[in-house]
Write a structure and sequence with these properties.
This protein is α+β, with helices and mostly antiparallel strands. The chain is built from 2 helices and 6 strands; from the N terminus they run E-E-E-E-H-E-H-E. The protein has a domain of 64 residues. It starts with 13 loop residues before the first strand and ends with a strand.
């Protein structure tokens, strides 16, 4: 069966600090007759480039799919790849 339309875009995700991790959560979008089978989470690096987050928010992780949230350790976000420092805004898109 081919859906009549694509699912709606996910709205703006929420990022919040929970202990030593950042939680990224989002609401389920409307399906428009299409089955939603996974979510991809992108984080914006300090350079402004969005990159697919696969370590902690994998599109293949059924818990992430079911719960519509994932946690990323602060140590990873302040490491060599993302290079965030205290006070930086963490921007995500799903």
């Amino acid at each position: 069966m081919v859906p009549k339309a694509l699912p709606d875009q996910v709205g703006t995700p929420v990022t919040e600090i929970v202990h030593i991790r950042v939680k990224i959560s989002w609401n389920e979008p409307g399906g428009n007759g299409a089955e939603i089978i996974k979510y991809r989470v992108y984080l914006m690096k300090k350079s402004g480039e969005f990159v697919l987050e696969t370590s902690h928010c994998s599109e293949n992780d059924q818990e992430v799919f079911k719960n519509r949230y994932c946690f990323i350790p602060m140590a990873e976000l302040t490491g060599d790849f993302y290079k965030f420092v205290k006070g930086d805004l963490i921007v995500a898109k799903v």
